[in-house]
């Protein structure tokens, strides 16, 4: 019975997730261990593409866990910036949503002076708003200057809070609604992965982060 309850809870209600990188600093740190609420958006039934009914849908500002579009075996965690129908844009590092600049107190900038072009940004041309074919060809997005892009139906645009060190929708595109796994709830364990101790998970625990809620 205990085993059955564990399987049911892990499959449909809660799942543990570890933060492997610093793409969500300051909100989430490398070495944080989270409990993810899978029921809130409707857990996927194993072996099928069907999902249980959810209590909610991702909203702007929500932190979500999802299957990485380029490799669904990997799970990523980012913050939702745009929902279906939104127009998203970035100007000199500031996010604009439907034409309005957004206040983002959770954002961290570590290298604001390095704003470079990456060929991975080229996917954006297909979703540019109000651009001619010639303008699309001449579109030259960078890390901190891109858009405006319209978010398609059943898609989400996500960014990491650590804007200068995050591989997110700017690079690889939108997140499909079917890829969303859940919403992180709480940090149940955390340790400093940057230390060189033999057992940092035991000696370098971040006690102040244990039990902290994720916003």
Task: Describe the overall structure.
With 215 residues, this protein is an alpha+beta fold. It has one domain: Umud Fragment, subunit A (Ribbon), CATH 2.10.109.10. It is built from 4 helices and 11 strands. It has a 7-stranded antiparallel sheet with strand order 1-2-11-3-4-9-10. The protein is globular, with a radius of gyration of 18 Å.
Summarize the model shown.
The chain is an alpha+beta fold. It contains 4 helices and 11 strands; from the N terminus they run H-E-E-E-E-E-E-E-H-E-E-H-E-E-H. Strands 1-2-11-3-4-9-10 form a 7-stranded antiparallel β-sheet.
Q: From the 3D structure, determine the CATH topology.
A: Umud Fragment, subunit A
Radius of gyration over all CA atoms, rounded: 18 Å
Domains (count):
1
Percent helix: 10-25%
Sheet bearing the most strands, described? Answer: 7 strands, antiparallel
Question: What structural keywords apply?
Answer:
alpha+beta, Umud Fragment, subunit A, four-stranded antiparallel β-sheet, globular
């Amino acid at each position: 019975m205990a085993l059955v309850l564990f399987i049911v809870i892990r499959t449909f209600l809660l799942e543990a997730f570890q933060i492997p990188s610093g793409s969500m600093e300051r909100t989430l740190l490398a070495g944080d261990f989270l409990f993810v609420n899978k029921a809130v958006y409707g857990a996927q039934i194993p072996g099928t593409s069907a999902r249980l009914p959810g209590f909610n849908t991702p909203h702007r500002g929500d932190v979500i866990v999802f299957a990485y579009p380029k490799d669904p075996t990997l799970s990523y965690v980012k913050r939702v910036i745009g929902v279906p129908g939104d127009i998203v844009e970035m100007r000199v590092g500031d996010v604009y949503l439907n034409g309005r600049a957004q206040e983002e107190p959770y954002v961290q900038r570590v290298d604001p002076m390095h704003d470079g072009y990456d060929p991975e940004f080229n996917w954006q041309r297909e979703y540019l708003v109000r651009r001619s074919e010639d303008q699309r060809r001449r579109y030259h997005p960078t890390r901190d200057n891109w858009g405006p892009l319209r978010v398609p139906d059943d898609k989400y645009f996500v960014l990491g809070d650590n804007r200068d060190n995050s591989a997110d929708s700017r690079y690889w595109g939108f997140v499909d609604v079917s890829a969303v796994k859940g919403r992180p709830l709480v940090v149940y364990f955390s340790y400093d992965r940057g230390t060189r101790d033999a057992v940092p998970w035991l000696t370098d625990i971040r006690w102040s982060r244990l039990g902290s809620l994720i916003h």
